[in-house]
Amino acid sequence: MGNRVVVGIDPDSEKHGVAVYSNGVIHGLYSLCLPELMVMLKNGIVCGDEVSLSIENVMANQFVYARNQHSNKAAQSKIAMRIGRCQQAQVELMRWLDNYGIPYVLHKPQKGNWADKRELFERITGWNKQSNEDTRAAAYFGYLEASKHVHV
Fold this sequence. Notes:
Helix content is 39%, strand content 22%. By secondary structure, it is an alpha/beta fold. It has a single domain, classed as Ribonuclease H-like superfamily/Ribonuclease H (Nucleotidyltransferase, domain 5, 2-Layer Sandwich), CATH 3.30.420. A 5-stranded mixed sheet has the order 3-2-1-4-5. Strand 2 and strand 3 (25-32) form a beta hairpin. The radius of gyration is 16 Å and the shape is globular.
């Protein structure tokens, strides 16, 4: 039997934040468009491994958060459009995963994720190489699933 691989994903309309865990240990952070991600999953680093995906469910997001309701209509429209694009990217990702029979778990967006908390992310994962908000968010959602399967 191969490794237990969990791929955390923060869906985005341009490039998804992607974090790869192998047997509970983070091994890589990537920014990948959908075709690049599918190549990685089907032919790349996870070939022969038991793979599952842990995805931030941006479909659960409202178009305009309460904190933005005081902005002008143009700002609200821009925020709604950005969230809508991310939601569509998630839909397309899930279609590909369903087509290839790759299992995934959806997690409700969480305020406490690591997107803006680099020091916390590094302390918990031990990762001190390059990261950005999207890859750290992906790492957070991957960690939620990967930590379920680590036996101490």
